[in-house]
Specification:
Oligomer: homotrimer
CATH topology of chain A: 60s Ribosomal Protein L30, Chain: A
Distance between the termini of chain A: 19 Å
CATH class of chain A: Alpha Beta
Strand order of the largest sheet of chain A: 1-2-5-3-4
Number of helices of chain A: 3
Largest sheet of chain A: 5 strands, mixed
């Protein structure tokens, strides 16, 4: 199975590819790399999952927000490149959690997106380098924001 | 008009190219990419725009701080590469806003830099992928810090 | 002297190469670049230096935490690539300090790692572009987290 078939087998719904809310592009190609802008947890009805992780959202809710952010990134890849199978590997993920200063479980939260990518692109190619960290604040108070770099098939 | 001419037509003043205040280089070349270090809102008199966005600075003041940070990045490009026209496209911008935990308008702030880049390099090449996020704190309490990756002409 | 010899001359101990605590790889190769995941200040006994910089740790302690984070990155490079001499230059460092909202000395903290890299790879090749910023929170409350991109010998 290729990545599109593996995604279909998950029975998940892609949100609409998010439109930029500022002066930026969702994805920029340079050579064989695609740089994806910071994405948020966009739902199918175009609303966003918001709130501070650790107070407004518990760990499980935050991990689902990260998974939804991953779906939003997949929607942009599909929209911009035509197919999830254009990605040959995940290179680097920056997972940013909107959390209070005493929150400590950022890796567990961002795993919500990373596990999705591993399901779609496989446990080797779908898993990249990563940082998972806590931001003081995020746009529109979204719970999670993730940017990533992926390598494309030649 | 090339990028230098477009910049000249804006009648803006470049600050002096900032000197590193730590063990780093303002710009590093790798292949056709230039990685620019995090820059702050440096003014012509070498002072910095400081303060928390949302409390010490309002949205309009913060957007001007982002524009000034963009000018500081242009000063480094001009100083290190000789000409703004060496840049063929903006690849990726990370815009970091020094804000309280309830600030939500990071994209509007960072647009101050992104709109400048679009004026200098054009609405396609001057607009890259981007994340605009809120930091808990920034060096010297600067209001905005921006790092970026640009692609150079061959 | 090559980088391995220069490191040996420093009489420092490498911690064990850190094992991922989430769904990510410590290092991913793309062309001649290696992307290193966010690393923390891992000690030889596998404990981590934790706490808020500016309250739990003073500047000197935080700089040592950054140096230890640098050692952790070196351990991953040695473990994944076999030798520190595989690195031809440091391209980009993102130094993230776990600090309160009124902390201002992030560059001085992250210099703890950057000075180590300059000792190992030399004052030109060992010094890259960099941002040094303050995070609202970090995993397991580590004091410092650093990710980096390095270029490899062909």
């Amino acid at each position: 199975m290729d990545a599109d078939a593996r995604f279909a087998a998950l029975n998940l719904e892609l949100p609409p590819a998010p439109k930029p809310v500022g002066v930026y592009k969702p994805l920029v190609l340079v050579g064989t790399l695609a740089y994806l802008s910071g994405h948020g947890p966009l739902l199918a009805d175009k609303s966003l999952i918001t709130g501070k992780v650790g107070t407004d959202l518990n760990l499980q809710q935050a991990k689902l927000a990260a998974r939804q952010t991953g779906l939003s990134l997949l929607a942009t890849i599909k929209s911009q490149l035509g197919s999830l199978s254009r990605v040959s590997r995940v290179v680097k993920v920056l997972g940013m959690v909107n959390a209070g200063s005493d929150f400590h479980e950022h890796p567990e939260v961002i795993n919500g997106a990373s596990e999705l990518f591993a399901e779609v692109w496989g446990p080797d190619a779908g898993v990249g380098a990563r940082s998972a960290v806590g931001m003081g604040s995020l746009p529109a108070n979204i719970a999670v924001e993730i940017e990533m770099i992926v390598e494309l098939t030649g």
